[in-house]
Amino acid sequence: MILFQNGILTGVYPASPSSLLIVVIAIMSTIYARIDPSLGMIDTIKRTMSVSGYMTVQTQTVLSAILFSTGLWLSLILMLRYILKALLSYHAWIFESHGKISFCTKLWLSLVKMLSGRRPLLYSFQTSLPRLPVPSVDDTITRYLESVRPLLDDEQYNQMEVVANDFKKDQAPKLQKYLILKSWWATNYVSDWWEEYIYLRGRSPIMVNSNFYSMDLLYVTPTHRQAARAGNVVHAMLQYRRKLERGEHAPLRALGVVPMCSYQMERMFNTTRIPGIETDFVQHLSDQKHLVVYHKGRFFKVWLYYGGRHLWPSELETQFQRILDDTTKPQPGELKLAALTAGNRVPWARARLKYFSQGVNKASLEAIETSAFFLSLDDEAHGYDPDKLRSLDLYAKSLLHGKCYDRWFDKSFTLIAYKNGKLGVNAEHSWADAPIIGHMWEYVLATDCFLLGYTEEGHCKGDINKGLPLPTKLQWDIPLECQEVIEESYMVAKVIADDVDFHGCLFDEFGKGLIKKSRTSPDAFIQLALQLAQFRDKGEFCLTYEASMTRMFREGRTETVRSCTSESTAFVRAMEDKNTASAQKLDLFRKAADKHQNMYRLAMTGSGIDRHLFCLYIMSKYLSIHSPFLKQVLSEPWRLSTSQTPQQQLNMVDIKKFPRYVGAGGGFGPVSQPPTRTCYTHTRTQTDIR
């Protein structure tokens, strides 16, 4: 009933169902006052009804007025949506200096607030979000050439300029025309191709190369009981899922006004990436009522509902403790079964068709793939320990790849609970980007620590229901040939895992609050620091990737910010030159920071470089048009890949009041063979943590 009610509220947004009654009453009042606001339309409807001859004149008048009122009401809703969409297409506000808001922007903010209503639901703004615009080819080529200028010598740059101009003159007009046509009928001209060609068609392992991770609270562990922590967090996830399915979460809004697209959140739960020979696909189901748990090589199915309600945290703790206490041995081939999801995709797809398409194997695999999500009860202890030098490094590596067989890497996410009470998440990347998981993870950790809590002994609060059905151990009949495929996938994954060199650095001398006080963008500050570090480490500059979001547009995902610029390289060279005065260094820093911030804003507002070129390249393949320029651009390696994890999307925890309740963010792995690519992930908090 609540789901239906919220569906109605979202469907008629920005109006409300009660506004229909107001319109009907207003129209009826004008009729009784002998005024016809319909310009004769009500009489036309009444004459159509009079043909039947079964209704009185008064009934015909009332029904005609109601039908006209409903049509007028629906027309007003559409008009309001188009007005709101037009307002949300205004992006000049993002280019204004911090603290300096123009009159136009103030007026725009007032209009958006007025049309947004008081309590919009999660998906209320979806139909009002503008489409991602297709940039002009001239602008994209100009920005591309500008981005590679500091990386090429004069001869190389001149050659690239010739190739780019040839493309702009010859192939680009036709490709751009078809891409614009696609943008008219597709909800987002990038996102469907991005999901298919960047993620689902990739045949290499997704472990490390694609999946990413999120960490637990850095300094706080609310209980050291593994089953209890898992019980609270799984219950909090079920609460989040219920609010998500009902659309009850508040939409994320920049400045508290500009809505972000919520489309990616739809596939957070009940979702699995299914392997295929040529391409994978994402399977998303409706409300699933069970969870699959992995512990010491065994898989268990746990029901999440009892008597029509979610299991309470104490009941979940009981179920998980039963699994921890189970001493049965894994069945042949079961221990490393999940390594199939960590290795190459084609062997996994073939093994799935050959060995898991019938009998107990099919039933057990179906239980995993249709579960709400996957839970791994690890037999190791991890987490940050200031007394252990590599604790953060080992914690991150465990979340990123584990033992290569103790996470189901195809699930939308795997919740990992360590034996010391620490947690983490490993997430599959095709269905969504990191901020989506971050939104859920913030809600879960805040609910766990501040709303659910624990007893003095560290157990979940609430009564223990011993009448719950026992967790069901999944059954397998895995032949030797399949076990060989599993072992081969494991060896492929292990080589990748052993090749990852991770180092985590906690920097707590100041946070982004102090950087902002210096009138500098925290993101630009970090990016310039990374450029300086890269130059000092390698002695050269390189093509640098930073992810920016495009969620101000419908179904927007990400865009690339090319952080290595002529301005940033000038700043780095000045820093390395002892003869350069401090004032000059500061001036170059300001110019480089302003340049980076402008590029980030362009990327956010649909004027980036790489997604446009990517789509032109895909279009060239569809049309069988050979483009040396696009081929070269798409083959350029990103030798320095950077990202950032947003914190406090929900503001459920006051970091000033509870400074120790801060997360360590998350990260991802390099996709190129070392030492060609280095990945940096930084977490920014709202305030300084001292």
From TrEMBL:
Membrane topology value: Multi-pass membrane protein
Catalytic residue positions: H429 (proton acceptor)
Keyword hit for Lipid metabolism: yes
This enzyme's EC code(s): 2.3.1.21
UniProt-recorded Gene Ontology molecular function terms: carnitine O-palmitoyltransferase activity
Domain Choline/carnitine acyltransferase per the UniProt entry, residue ranges: 132-683
Catalytic activities: (R)-carnitine + hexadecanoyl-CoA = O-hexadecanoyl-(R)-carnitine + CoA
Functional description taken from the UniProt entry: Catalyzes the transfer of the acyl group of long-chain fatty acid-CoA conjugates onto carnitine, an essential step for the mitochondrial uptake of long-chain fatty acids and their subsequent beta-oxidation in the mitochondrion.
Annotated protein name in UniProt: Carnitine O-palmitoyltransferase 1, muscle isoform
Species this protein is from: Oncorhynchus mykiss (Rainbow trout)
Lineage: Eukaryota, Metazoa, Chordata, Craniata, Vertebrata
